[in-house]
């Protein structure tokens, strides 16, 4: 059974870079052609799709985040990472990783991790 788990710092200072990792247990990136996404949720913005990475490494992002955001995978391909640069308090949210590149294709989610930008 495939499961996703987000990990990373719970507190980031303004203007620093936020790095989060999604660990895929029971599966990996590539074999079944899934894309993998990052989503966040805050009281102010609700659920917000941030960006995604295809099984072969192509990435695409919400236009408002494109300049600050990257997604990459490691070796072995059982993890993928979000990096968001120059964070502000507006980036305070619960961050989720998911299998599937768009809302209609997301069939598996992590439990989420709260990130607070403060300091």
Walk me through what this model shows.
The structure is a single chain. This protein is an all-beta fold. Helix content is 0%, strand content 49%. It is built from no helices and eleven strands. The chain has strands at 3-7, 11-12, 18-25, 36-42, 46-53, 59-61, 69-73, 79-84, 93-99, 108-109, 113-117. The strands form two sheets. Strands 2, 4, 5, 6, 9, 10 and 11 form a seven-stranded mixed sheet that branches. Strands 1-3-8-7 form a four-stranded antiparallel sheet, with no helix packed on it. β4 (36-42) and β5 (46-53) form a beta hairpin. The protein is globular and about 40 Å long. The model has no long low-confidence stretch (mean pLDDT 94).
Question: Care to give the gist of this entry?
Answer:
By secondary structure, the protein is mainly β. The protein has no helices and eleven strands.
Helix and strand content put the structural class at: mainly beta
Instruction: Please tally the helical runs, counting DSSP H or I stretches of 4 or more residues.
Output: 0
- Overall pLDDT score: 94
How much of the sequence lies in strands comes to: over 45%
Order of helices and strands: EEEEEEEEEEE
- The number of strands is 11
Instruction: Note the main sheet.
Output: 7 strands, mixed
């Amino acid at each position: 059974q495939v499961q996703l788990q987000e990990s990373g710092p719970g507190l980031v200072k303004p203007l620093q870079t936020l790095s989060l990792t999604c660990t895929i247990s029971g599966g990996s990136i590539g074999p079944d052609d899934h894309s993998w996404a990052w989503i966040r949720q805050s009281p102010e913005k609700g659920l917000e799709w941030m960006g995604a990475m295809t099984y072969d490494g192509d990435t695409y992002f919400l236009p408002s985040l494109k300049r600050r955001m990257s997604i990459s995978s490691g070796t072995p391909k059982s993890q993928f990472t979000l990096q968001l640069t120059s964070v502000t308090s507006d980036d305070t949210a619960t961050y989720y990783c998911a299998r599937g590149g768009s809302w209609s294709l997301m069939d598996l989610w992590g439990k989420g991790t709260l990130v607070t930008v403060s300091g």
